[in-house]
Amino acid sequence: MSQTDTLTQPRREAGTFTARRRSRAGALGLLAALLVLAVLISVCTGAMAISLPELAGIVTQQLGMEAAYPFEEHQKIIFWFMRLPRICLGILIGAGLSVAGALLQSLFRNPLADPMLIGISSGATLFAVLAIVLGTFFSGLLGGLLGSYLLSFAAFMGACLAILLVYQLSKVNGRSQITTMLLAGIAINAFVNALTGLLISMANDEQLRSITFWGLGSLGGATWTTVLTVLPFIGLTLLYMPRLAKSLNLLALGESQAAHLGVNTTRLKRQTILLVTLTVGASVAVAGTIGFVGLVIPHIIRQAFGPHHRLVLSGSALAGAAVLTLADTLSRTLVAPSELPIGVLTALMGTPVFVYILLKEKRYTHD
């Protein structure tokens, strides 16, 4: 290599690094703009329409300034106490489920991994069904201590206990093995689903309706209290995930190779599983089971913008929040004044993408 090449090589590398950073920033900016657009559509759409000028008037008045545009008082009430809490909850849950899916896909190095794979959602569902079927017994046992939060508390505890059992079963010589964790998750899923079916067979008609609606997911119960309840759990994952990006990039090379490059794989697995459990447990506890978001969104981001985990995780959070916000808008407007379960819409939107993933994997394996 000539002296000129030696001098220009650092400049080329610096230029490439800068270009990559600009590319990532542009991709995240595009996804952020999509999220803002989804929020505006959701705010303005509904049985009581709110135009953008009226929205500006509501916000400026709340900030203590003169209203920029006249609006009706009930529009203000609907915005602050019905639509905005629901949108905020959708953003948190959409971002949380998408990031959880991205983390699990990176951990298992499998694009078909999602939060339902290792028993988190199934455990939450079992305990939620248990709370619905035996709600009177538990309310009497706890003296009404949890009140209306009994279902949410039960679902969260079910998610935590399920993943704790899976993690303990995956240990070999004191260290958890990813393959064993996957097999343990499948086994626990089957067992938990059987127990859930047994409880459902014992339920009466009213309990069956509650189980069915809860199992399909809904943001209809969103309040500011609900938003503040899940914020610490999902917020912790969203704030901490950038610290895992570098380790996950190295883990993509293989567990042994990552360990040789200085990654503490045991700690990485524990951190990943803990963050996923907190996020999915909190989401299922307040909104029920919402499928396909954690499976499809990370795969789309990875295909569109590349495999770098700093972009995959952040992009999944933004895209998941936008997609769930739009899905919730459709769920409350398509059959108004009734409401479609949001899990139905995410499944309808996610299934074609899931089939595409399967077909692409099949072609890749065949080639």
From TrEMBL:
The keyword Protease does not apply. Coiled coil: none annotated. It is a multi-pass membrane protein. InterPro entries: ABC_BtuC-like, ABC_transptr_permease_BtuC. Gene3D superfamilies: ABC transporter involved in vitamin B12 uptake, BtuC (1.10.3470.10). Keywords: Cell membrane, Membrane, Transmembrane, Transmembrane helix, Transport. Its main location: membrane. It comes from the Bacteria. It is found in: Cell membrane. GO terms for biological process: siderophore-iron import into cell. Belongs to the binding-protein-dependent transport system permease family. FecCD subfamily. This is Iron complex transport system permease protein. The lineage of its organism: Bacteria, Pseudomonadati, Bacteroidota, Cytophagia, Cytophagales.
